[in-house]
Design brief:
- The protein is mainly alpha-helical.
- It folds into two domains: about 10-75; about 85-145.
- The protein has four helices and no strands.
- It has helices spanning about 10-35, 55-75, 85-105, 120-145.
- Helix 1 (about 10-35) runs antiparallel to helix 2 (about 55-75) and helix 3 (about 85-105) runs antiparallel to helix 4 (about 120-145).
- The protein is extended.
């Protein structure tokens, strides 16, 4: 195939493709990690049995490798710049998000699900509040760096 002519993008178009292909690259990395057989972990509520057919696992590795190659080719063709993703900010955002979810699950917020047993407020709320506080404190430590 012949070399395409230069492709000119404006700044917004370039940013769009940088984000689009960067997210695709992130998703591929996540899928690839799921393709690897999982070693028994310490999860309690999110069990993930290895139910992938072996032929899918093998073909997916190859197919995703091809998509990675296409991402690389498009990145050159469109003159895209890599984005720097801060681990510190990513972890802080995840911690903050989870702390908010915990706070949103305290007994006053659960009233919409129906009548709540009073023991939830007495026993569950303190544990959820403590976990939310711990996660928020970790996030604050990262923001203070």
């Amino acid at each position: 195939m012949s070399q395409p002519p230069p492709i000119i993008l404006n700044a917004n178009q370039r940013r769009h493709f940088e984000v689009l292909l960067g997210r695709l690259e992130d998703s591929i990395a996540k899928i690839e990690s799921l393709l690897a057989p999982e070693i028994a972990g310490d999860r309690i509520l999110s069990l993930m049995p290895d139910d992938l057919p072996e032929d899918f696992r093998t073909s997916a590795w190859e197919t995703l490798g091809g998509v990675r190659t296409q991402i690389a080719e498009l990145s050159v063709l469109l003159m895209l710049r890599p984005r720097n993703v801060s681990r510190r900010r990513t972890i802080a955002a995840a911690l903050t998000s989870e702390a908010i979810r915990l706070e949103d699950s305290l007994s006053p917020q659960l009233q919409g699900y129906g009548t709540l047993d009073p023991t939830v407020e007495q026993y569950v709320d303190p544990i959820l509040s403590q976990m939310a506080t711990i996660l928020a404190a970790l996030a604050a430590r990262l923001r203070g760096v």
